[in-house]
What does this fold into?
Amino acid sequence: MRTSLKISALAAAVASVQAMAADVLTADPLVVSASRSAQRLLDADSSVSTVQGPDVAKEAPTGIAAALRDVPGIRIIDDGTPLFRRVSIRGEEPGRTLFAVDGDRVSDQKTMSGAPLLVNPYFIDRIEVVRGPASLLYGSDAMGGMVNAITKQASKKPFAAEAGATFDGSHEGITLYANASGTVGRFRYALGGFGSDLGDMYLKGHERLDSTSGHSKGANADFKFDPTADSTIGYKYEFIDSAARTATTVSDESYRDFTAHIPQWKRIKHSLSGELRNLGSFVDKISIEAYSQGMDKEFVPAIPIHSASPYAPKSPLVFDIQNEQKTVGGTLQADMHFGDLIDLTAGYDVSYTTLDSDTASDISMTLPRVGPYTLNYRATDRDYYSRQNALFALMHAHLTDTLTLSAGTRWNRIVDGGGCTRSNYQAYTPDSNPGSSTFTRTVGSASLVWQPNSRTAFRASWSQGFRAPSIQELFLTTTELETQRGNSALKPEKTNNYEIGFRYMGDVLTADAALFYSHADDYIASKAVGSGRSLYYTYQNINEAETYGLELSLAVKAGFAEPYASLTLMNREFKTGRTVTTDTGTPKFSGRAGARLSGEMSGVALGADFFARFASKGIYDDKRMPGTSYVQDNDLAGYVTANMAFTAAFGSEQQYKVSLNLENLLDARYRTSALIEEPGRFASITASASF
It folds into this structure.
């Protein structure tokens, strides 16, 4: 058979699916996160990016965060646990970014690092990233934006399956996964499972960093049944259980020798849903969902002691902290239309979260005139809760065939409290019954989208976001490297965001650009109280921030080649009283640029990607700005990495796929966040088959 290299629709499709997430789109896909109902991307009034499931799977051994790192405005934050990386959007810390699975939030009421991205990365149809506040539709935490992982849908065939394996060279780890789905009459099903076992991470020069290994496992089930052509009932189950170890590469003495073990971080969710469609002249759909979600975490930090006192402990302080969080919640939503002019989405959200925590430590020391002594420290937090209720409405008014006005509002009421804290050593943790705190917050948004033709859209928007204090910030005392005490007088954080943007989706050129400005106030940060042995830290509303920038992505198809680039320019300024600084650790520019090639040889669809990732330096000013970062000596140098990726799809229906990623080819030493370096040169390989 004659061997030739040619451009084909099939090869282009495979290359598109296998492309790394440079936020370049070759079609006008449907998205749901921006308006809580399906709409074309060109109709969206927010900056929305999508990362497809195959791209997530290629990056997935270390979690879904890696698959999002090339989305404009995104920065990956690693607090020393590579398998639990979080996402920062437009400079906001991960705690101000909402993470959701199928639109349902995943929250953590006892952390300052933000909710973990706990989801089966191999059971994802796509991830949608909303940049800019999404609090109107999703409530607290979506100040910077939202990451919504949308799980796999059932195949239209009676039975379809896929299975794969990945080797990740950054940890020399193996992952296996399998999914199956189908449609039989009115019944649809989707099932999935995976397991990962990763070793310690390798830095520049193949230097192994101890205490960075981990493993994960998970399972999913999704069943739907259509009693009639216009109704659906469903049940979903999610299970994921991960464990990992924590280390740092910073020179700061307090953190240099800090290690921790997370023996378990588990999320289990059950949900029931129902949907009625075509209910009359004005109601397109009514949907209802109720869910139960549990998250259990065990955290065992080992805190080094840097003291010359002969009475100080000679070994690190080890705390065993166990948190149990349970949430029940639900949403009722109606999608309506009034003629050709008005579309309206309205609904009611409710959730109730409880938190219990146990902390234990056996501290051995030598006391004057006493000798060796062991302090058996124990503390419990019981029956703390967060109850949230919200009403929301979003209207789209089609003023002309090309101009759409959108406006919406959300009313939130959040009540936290109800618990009690008990300790056998009150110098660390005073006993308390703190009562409760109640917050009400109304947020709004407004936008215009103008589409002069079928390929182009201009948008301008204003949106508000907020973040309610967590149970930890309000009420709890935590003791790790420093003692932190809650403050029940905290106010919610808030932000206003202004944005103008442009999208073009052509046969040759695709482009998306956004100019944005946000002002955030009442930031919650730690502040020292007292001095000497009586020193402790408490949370206060002391900071505000201004952020502005440009996000740009574009691609040009030129035969079998597709040059592309994604770029973020950003300036972020912190204010506390009269102190102002732009040294917040945020790089002034970052992005990715490269070229993809696609073609076919002997019936094999081939793809290649040659690209660089880059970022300017990020300077921290934590000495003047409390709460800016964890450590003092943590400035980030700028970097450029060279990378390559190759894909091949073959078989009668291209059902067999192989991908090879070669990352950090020049073996650069660099950090993207404060506490830990990124991996050195490594390769990862993924092989999969569909049936």
Notes: The chain has a mean pLDDT of 88.
